[in-house]
Fold this protein.
Amino acid sequence: MRLQYTLKGIEATNVLGNCLSMVLEPGDLFLLSGDLGAGKTSLAKAIASGLGIEEREVTSPSFTIIHEHMNGRLPLIHVDLYRLGPHADITEIGLEDYLDGENIVIIEWAEYLKDTLVETALKIDLSFVDEQSREVCMTGKTGIWRERLLVVDDCMKAYNERLNRKE
Protein backbone atom coordinates (compact mmCIF):
# COMPACT_ATOMS: atom_id res chain seq x y z
CA MET A 1 0.00 0.00 0.00
CA ARG A 2 1.21 3.49 -0.81
CA LEU A 3 0.15 6.93 0.44
CA GLN A 4 1.47 10.26 -0.75
CA TYR A 5 0.97 13.76 0.65
CA THR A 6 2.31 17.27 0.30
CA LEU A 7 3.09 18.55 3.78
CA LYS A 8 2.81 22.34 3.92
CA GLY A 9 4.80 23.47 6.93
CA ILE A 10 5.80 21.89 10.20
CA GLU A 11 2.19 21.70 11.41
CA ALA A 12 1.34 19.22 8.63
CA THR A 13 4.43 17.17 9.49
CA ASN A 14 3.34 17.14 13.14
CA VAL A 15 -0.15 16.00 12.17
CA LEU A 16 1.25 13.16 10.05
CA GLY A 17 3.50 12.06 12.91
CA ASN A 18 0.56 12.07 15.32
CA CYS A 19 -1.60 10.16 12.83
CA LEU A 20 1.14 7.54 12.46
CA SER A 21 1.60 7.27 16.23
CA MET A 22 -2.08 6.33 16.61
CA VAL A 23 -1.60 3.10 14.64
CA LEU A 24 1.77 1.97 15.98
CA GLU A 25 2.25 -1.52 17.34
CA PRO A 26 5.24 -3.00 19.18
CA GLY A 27 7.88 -4.09 16.68
CA ASP A 28 7.04 -1.50 14.02
CA LEU A 29 9.95 -0.31 11.93
CA PHE A 30 10.04 2.96 9.97
CA LEU A 31 12.71 3.45 7.30
CA LEU A 32 13.05 7.18 6.60
CA SER A 33 14.95 8.46 3.60
CA GLY A 34 15.36 11.81 1.89
CA ASP A 35 17.77 14.67 1.39
CA LEU A 36 19.47 16.52 4.23
CA GLY A 37 16.89 18.85 5.77
CA ALA A 38 13.90 17.13 4.17
CA GLY A 39 12.19 16.64 7.54
CA LYS A 40 13.19 13.16 8.73
CA THR A 41 14.01 14.28 12.28
CA SER A 42 10.93 16.54 12.40
CA LEU A 43 8.74 13.57 11.51
CA ALA A 44 10.51 11.39 14.11
CA LYS A 45 9.85 14.11 16.74
CA ALA A 46 6.17 14.24 15.77
CA ILE A 47 5.82 10.45 16.04
CA ALA A 48 7.55 10.56 19.43
CA SER A 49 5.21 13.33 20.58
CA GLY A 50 2.23 11.17 19.62
CA LEU A 51 3.71 8.43 21.82
CA GLY A 52 3.86 10.82 24.78
CA ILE A 53 7.59 11.55 24.52
CA GLU A 54 8.56 15.20 24.88
CA GLU A 55 9.62 16.56 21.49
CA ARG A 56 12.57 18.39 23.04
CA GLU A 57 13.97 15.00 24.12
CA VAL A 58 14.14 13.86 20.50
CA THR A 59 17.17 15.18 18.69
CA SER A 60 19.03 13.96 15.66
CA PRO A 61 21.11 11.00 16.80
CA SER A 62 23.82 11.76 14.22
CA PHE A 63 26.67 11.64 16.71
CA THR A 64 25.56 8.82 18.99
CA ILE A 65 23.75 7.01 16.13
CA ILE A 66 21.10 5.43 18.44
CA HIS A 67 18.87 7.22 20.96
CA GLU A 68 16.54 5.29 23.28
CA HIS A 69 13.27 6.88 24.46
CA MET A 70 11.62 4.54 26.96
CA ASN A 71 9.22 6.97 28.65
CA GLY A 72 6.37 6.94 26.12
CA ARG A 73 3.36 4.73 25.44
CA LEU A 74 5.74 2.41 23.54
CA PRO A 75 9.56 2.35 23.67
CA LEU A 76 11.04 4.32 20.75
CA ILE A 77 14.48 3.73 19.28
CA HIS A 78 15.64 6.58 17.01
CA VAL A 79 18.57 5.78 14.72
CA ASP A 80 20.50 8.00 12.31
CA LEU A 81 22.83 6.32 9.81
CA TYR A 82 24.10 9.55 8.19
CA ARG A 83 27.60 9.36 9.68
CA LEU A 84 27.97 5.70 8.73
CA GLY A 85 27.30 6.40 5.07
CA PRO A 86 26.41 3.88 2.38
CA HIS A 87 26.46 0.20 3.31
CA ALA A 88 25.80 0.68 7.04
CA ASP A 89 25.83 -2.66 8.83
CA ILE A 90 23.18 -3.05 11.54
CA THR A 91 25.21 -5.70 13.36
CA GLU A 92 28.19 -3.35 13.78
CA ILE A 93 26.11 -0.74 15.61
CA GLY A 94 24.00 -3.20 17.62
CA LEU A 95 20.74 -2.23 15.93
CA GLU A 96 19.55 -5.82 15.67
CA ASP A 97 19.23 -5.89 19.48
CA TYR A 98 16.38 -3.37 19.19
CA LEU A 99 14.53 -5.31 16.50
CA ASP A 100 13.02 -7.60 19.12
CA GLY A 101 9.35 -6.97 18.45
CA GLU A 102 8.93 -4.72 21.49
CA ASN A 103 10.28 -1.37 20.29
CA ILE A 104 9.20 1.14 17.71
CA VAL A 105 12.33 1.73 15.60
CA ILE A 106 12.75 4.78 13.37
CA ILE A 107 15.83 4.75 11.13
CA GLU A 108 16.88 7.97 9.39
CA TRP A 109 19.00 7.65 6.25
CA ALA A 110 17.67 4.11 5.80
CA GLU A 111 18.88 4.17 2.20
CA TYR A 112 22.35 3.59 3.69
CA LEU A 113 21.42 0.15 5.02
CA LYS A 114 23.22 -2.64 3.23
CA ASP A 115 20.60 -5.12 4.32
CA THR A 116 17.04 -4.48 3.33
CA LEU A 117 16.07 -5.35 6.90
CA VAL A 118 12.57 -6.70 7.04
CA GLU A 119 9.89 -6.36 4.46
CA THR A 120 7.44 -5.52 7.22
CA ALA A 121 8.88 -1.98 7.53
CA LEU A 122 7.02 1.14 6.53
CA LYS A 123 9.22 3.06 4.10
CA ILE A 124 8.85 6.82 4.27
CA ASP A 125 10.53 8.99 1.63
CA LEU A 126 10.62 12.76 2.12
CA SER A 127 11.59 15.24 -0.57
CA PHE A 128 11.61 19.02 -0.97
CA VAL A 129 8.82 20.78 -2.82
CA ASP A 130 9.92 24.24 -1.69
CA GLU A 131 11.28 25.94 1.43
CA GLN A 132 8.13 25.22 3.48
CA SER A 133 6.66 22.13 1.78
CA ARG A 134 7.71 18.50 1.59
CA GLU A 135 6.41 15.58 -0.42
CA VAL A 136 6.06 12.40 1.63
CA CYS A 137 5.51 8.94 0.19
CA MET A 138 4.80 6.02 2.53
CA THR A 139 4.97 2.45 1.29
CA GLY A 140 4.17 -0.62 3.35
CA LYS A 141 3.37 -4.24 2.65
CA THR A 142 -0.38 -4.43 2.07
CA GLY A 143 -1.11 -7.29 4.46
CA ILE A 144 0.61 -5.52 7.33
CA TRP A 145 0.01 -1.82 6.71
CA ARG A 146 -3.21 -1.59 4.66
CA GLU A 147 -5.69 -1.14 7.53
CA ARG A 148 -3.38 1.06 9.54
CA LEU A 149 -2.54 3.31 6.58
CA LEU A 150 -6.25 3.70 5.87
CA VAL A 151 -6.60 5.08 9.42
CA VAL A 152 -3.65 7.43 8.79
CA ASP A 153 -5.26 8.53 5.51
CA ASP A 154 -8.57 9.30 7.26
CA CYS A 155 -6.67 11.27 9.90
CA MET A 156 -4.82 13.31 7.25
CA LYS A 157 -8.04 13.93 5.28
CA ALA A 158 -9.72 15.25 8.44
CA TYR A 159 -6.77 17.60 9.00
CA ASN A 160 -6.91 18.85 5.40
CA GLU A 161 -10.68 19.42 5.66
CA ARG A 162 -10.19 21.49 8.83
CA LEU A 163 -7.43 23.43 7.09
CA ASN A 164 -9.59 24.12 4.04
CA ARG A 165 -12.46 25.39 6.23
CA LYS A 166 -10.09 27.89 7.86
CA GLU A 167 -9.01 29.33 4.51
Observations:
- The longest strand covers residues 2-8.
- Residues 2-166 form a domain with the Rossmann fold fold (CATH 3.40.50.300).
- The chain is about 30% helix and 25% strand.
